[in-house]
Design goal:
99 residues; 56% helix; 0% strand; globular
């Protein structure tokens, strides 16, 4: 099963390529939902890794340009940059040691 070897942003390919072009799983909502879960306090390093991985996936979409979206290149780049920044900020919040 190669599903576990793919990043979370690619899991929507199971539904179809027409869904994947909208990047439904490659945004800050998935890591934010995990961080807002009641059991998130015990899983902070894991959730921070999910945030950093999602940000890296979004950066690869920008750099490689391998994804054709219906919004055009500029809007997709802005979307990816904003969501990657939110994911990295959330990861930094999750990794801050509580006093």
């Amino acid at each position: 099963m190669d599903l576990l070897s793919r990043p979370l942003g690619d899991w929507d390919l199971l539904v179809g390529p027409s869904v994947h072009e909208l990047l439904p799983l490659a945004n800050a909502c998935c890591p934010r939902a995990g961080a807002g879960a009641p059991a998130a306090a015990r899983r902070r390093p894991w959730l921070a890794g999910l945030c950093v991985g999602t940000a890296a996936y979004l950066a690869s979409v920008i750099v490689l340009g391998h994804l054709a979206t219906p919004f055009g290149g500029l809007l997709t780049t802005v979307w990816c940059l904003v969501n990657a920044a939110v994911c990295l900020y959330l990861a930094s919040l999750l990794l801050v040691k509580s006093r």
